[in-house]
Structure to design on (316 residues):
């Protein structure tokens, strides 16, 4: 059997991102056949070598992939000191240890991918892969065609230029406009910041699509398995995005900051609206004692995403 690099083997076993697993090795917490490994580059045979983390045998898990409709006020993180509901808590029946692949901030709802596949998690998290994500967002005021051109052309934020592509006006009423737009750049709370910049603050935001994978009729708090074709689609998108220079590469890419326009780890109930990005992307190193995860029922189904986004108040 081909040998695996140790940090890659650990990531595939669900111990976090590859970078997080490198830290486990550097900290001397990993042994191979009884010997502590503290340097990079070691390779292991998953069928013959015994690998342990903090004394616990590491077993390579079967990869699982789920699509969750994350409700508002649910966090995409592996740990929350305030004990609030996390996305992984909504998959209580899944025996594998899951991680959110990419994030969606607490104020937003929509689809997120949860998996124990470290490679796919990296693809959906790092900005260099440019995986497109599509949103429906309701904003204050009547958005004009000229404003749409401005949004698509790009506005300057404090951390550099940012834009929303493929913007469509879905519905306009006296006090609000429903828009659809796509992000592939990867910037913290990008849609909210761009729309505020042009004078139309976001009232409600729902992620309806990642690549060609759609929200469809998945209800908030429900989830379904991704098909093998869908998993392959995401990996293909990531590889294509990595090969492309991209028309507009944000400053975040140069620093390795997490991708996702609506990313941001919620710092606590008393914190301000602008959450800081979580550079560890919720893929925290696995600790043997933290096993008991409360993780509602599967709700499969597919159809083309609709245009509807229920009218929302400003506190949605």
């Amino acid at each position: 059997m081909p040998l695996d690099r140790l940090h890659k083997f650990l990531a595939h076993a669900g111990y976090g991102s590859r970078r997080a697993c490198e830290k486990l090795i550097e900290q001397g917490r990993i042994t191979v056949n009884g010997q502590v490994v503290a340097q990079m580059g070691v390779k292991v045979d998953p069928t013959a070598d015994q690998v342990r983390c903090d004394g616990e045998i590491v077993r390579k898990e079967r990869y699982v992939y789920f699509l969750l409709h994350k409700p508002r006020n649910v966090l995409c993180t592996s740990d929350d000191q305030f004990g609030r509901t996390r996305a992984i808590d909504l998959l209580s029946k899944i025996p594998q240890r899951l991680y959110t692949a990419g994030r969606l901030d607490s104020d937003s709802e929509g689809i997120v991918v949860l998996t124990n596949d470290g490679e796919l998690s990296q693809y959906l998290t790092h900005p260099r892969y440019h995986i497109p994500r599509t949103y429906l967002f309701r904003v204050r005021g009547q958005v004009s065609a000229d404003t749409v051109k401005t949004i698509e052309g790009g506005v300057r934020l404090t951390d550099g230029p940012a834009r929303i592509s493929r913007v469509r006006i879905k519905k306009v009423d006296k006090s609000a406009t429903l828009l659809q737009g796509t992000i592939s750049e990867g910037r913290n709370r990008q849609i909210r910041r761009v729309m505020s910049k042009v004078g139309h603050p976001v009232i409600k935001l729902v992620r309806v699509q990642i690549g060609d994978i759609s929200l469809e009729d998945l209800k908030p708090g429900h989830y379904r398995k991704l098909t093998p074709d869908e998993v392959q689609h995401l990996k293909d998108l990531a590889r294509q995005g990595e090969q492309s220079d991209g028309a507009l590469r944000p400053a975040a890419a140069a620093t390795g900051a997490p991708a996702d326009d609506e990313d941001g780890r919620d710092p606590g109930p008393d914190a301000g609206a602008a959450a800081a990005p979580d550079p560890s992307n919720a893929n925290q190193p696995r600790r043997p004692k933290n096993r008991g995860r409360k993780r509602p029922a599967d709700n499969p189904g597919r159809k083309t995403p609709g245009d509807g986004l229920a009218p929302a108040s400003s506190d949605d």
